[in-house]
Amino acid sequence: MFVTDTDKIYMSDDKGNVIAEIDFVETAPGIMTIEHTFVDSSLRGQGIAAKLVEAAVKEIHSRGKKVQATCSYAAKWLREHEIDES
Question: Helix, strand, coil % (nearest 5) of the chain?
Answer without folding.
Answer: 30, 35, 35
